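User: Please predict structures.

Assistant: First:
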Amino acid sequence: MTHRLSAGAGGRDLVRLPTADPQSVARSDQVDALIRTEIKAQGGALAFDRFMELALYAPSIGYYSGGAEKFGPGGDFVTAPEVSSLFGCCLARQAQQVLERLDGGDILEIGGGSGRLARDLLAQLERMDALPERYLILELSAELRLRQRDALADLAPHVAERVQWLNGFPEFGMQGLVIANEVVDAMPVSRFRVDDGGIYELFVVEGGDAPFGFQWRTPLTPGFAKAVERLLSRLGGLAPGYVSEINLRAGPWVASLAGCLKRGVGLIVDYGYTRREFYHPERSRGTLICHYRHRAHDNPLALVGIQDITASVDFSALAEVAEDAGLSVAGFVPQGHFLIAAGLEECIGTNPTGVRGHLQSAQEVKRLTLPSQMGERFKFLAVAADWDAGLVGFSLRDFRDRL
């Protein structure tokens, strides 16, 4: 059974998005052509998670694989490390505690972004005389690796020599701290709809007037139907017509994290909700959102390959798959609580002095910690292996009971 709907179904006016430059348009056309080829190979309909994967990660031309700037004022969105070095300073204090407790170890950053977090972390850890044995960056994008190298270029030689780039998770035996900042939200997700007739999966098809359109079909993706049925059972059902996302890739990813971490802590930082909040009746159209030049809209079929496509994180599901993989859940708090507990006040004291410096710090703190900004929407989830101590970033409050 299929249900056709238009590609333009969404809440924001795409006409107001900035015009893409010719180079970006050409790259988008390449991604379009690749997706059309895949649609034909799949018999006329492509599962949404595969569409999202190609749009974001197609080699050399996908959003995260291509050469356009993504992070910061000149890109499409701003992450916490781009907001302020205070974010990295607070994480460094948490890293110091973990490394001291383990009597040394490594830091593994999954998805290094612009390189700002690595730079700020290493600079602060050097000041604290608490450098890791190695700073590993798992980064698959060659273009982002170049940006990260540029960001780290001014580090002292004895610091820079500790940085290594990886193509995958290290083998089992790592001891230290793993950081995944805004990684899970960028994983391809599957979209589902609940109706009286059952569960439907969203597919992308070739459009009429537009290049692509959406179509609801009987589920085909392996594991999709069972995962949604299990979700509905835990929630006690959802109203007919309810549309949302489910991340089928988070489980294998967390299993890979568990497979490398022998002793230490993993910090998963992202925006999202607990399961009950994620699938709240008022959130009946899901959480999927796109970003282009700091404009947000909800049509993933526009600007394919040159805009970000993301979905919020179900932290309850992450905690469950972590425990299934043999990790313990060691803490869960909103970002504001974590930063304050991890020494935000002390970090502010190291920022530039003077009226301008204080005003800038005040604005950065507001953006990082206020509930109306990033302070409540972003969460820190700590998972651990062979770890029996508390964590400084979760010493102020801990909301594990809400997961």
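Second:
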Amino acid sequence: MPATYQEQYARMRRWYDRFSTLAQGRPHDMPSENYLDEIYAFFQNCHHLKEWIKNDPTVDARIQRAVEAHIDSNRPLRLCADLCNSLKHLENWNRSGEGPHFGRKQFGLALGPGPTTINLQYEVETDTGPIDAFALATECLEAWDAFLTGNGLKS
């Protein structure tokens, strides 16, 4: 059975769920760099959903052509595109016109009788000011859900 955009959507959701637990606090059981990798993986998988939609033969060609316009008309997805491409190519991209890049990181540790937990607040710096990275991730997920629902690809 050929791969479909639903596989990439589900993968993006799993990375979002990992990011969510990190934003809320979870057991601290690996080096801190791994948590950053999970955040980066969300934004990369989120942006790459467009390629899966565009290349999925089960998706109508009209919808495939509409993907880029949807990203261009949606600030969170434009920022996500820039972050993803910057991570991929080791140079800043500016599709959004806002020059986004990852900024301040604030780790929190909770110590006590139970397991040590960690949370991470990460900012995305833009020309118009900082944005909480998890809030941006949530807006990206909502933007994809609206696109998929609006085009009959998700109920």
